[in-house]
Please model this.
Amino acid sequence: MIVKNETTPTIKELVERAGLRHIAFIMDGNGRWATSRLLPREAGHKAGAEVFRKIVRYCKDIGIKCCTVYAFSTENWNRPKTEVEAIMKLLEKYAAEADGEKEISFHFIGDKAPLADAMREKLENLERNTAGRPYILNIALNYGGRAEIVNAVNTLIEAGKTEITESDISAVLYTNHCPDPDLVVRTGKELRISNFLLWQSAYAEYYFSEKMWPELTEGDIDEAVRSFAGRKRRWGGLDEA
Model:
């Protein structure tokens, strides 16, 4: 337990001191949380959606400038049809209400082409209506890290590039409007990155929680921030003498 005293920084101060600008979440465990309670998996996604709203707001409140969440991967289409439909309905409902989330600039990263026309239009309208707001929220939807890199390379080839640099690729990734993630948080007890932000997270710090996503609290975010603030990021180099 952390005992607060006059020398103990607040979480917001830690975020600033540690240079934590961008936090990304692999929101894992919704289905397992539900089945462990003898509920349908769809109930887990509904509970997870409420936690998502709470955590996104909290990250904004403690001074983080950008948040990315892994909402639906390119592989998630292989899940049962009823589960996929439930997830899409939750996303559509959120998009319909999200313009009221003050100060948030929404970006839906991934391939939106397979989505229904009406849903794709709602997402694009939300992006336009909230452009320029100070807090960036990336929602990874029909997203895969490998597919993103392939798309970036093909975009550069179509533009006539014959030699491609790292800067070229970074400039055409879905996340070219924000810095790379400093911290990636994964819930659900799994210790893998699941094709998420493969390029962008090359030097990110990772924090793994044994909690299922619907169980995550603001206190867990505080612990992740403290963990991050206590690490030394060497970027492939050595500590200064």
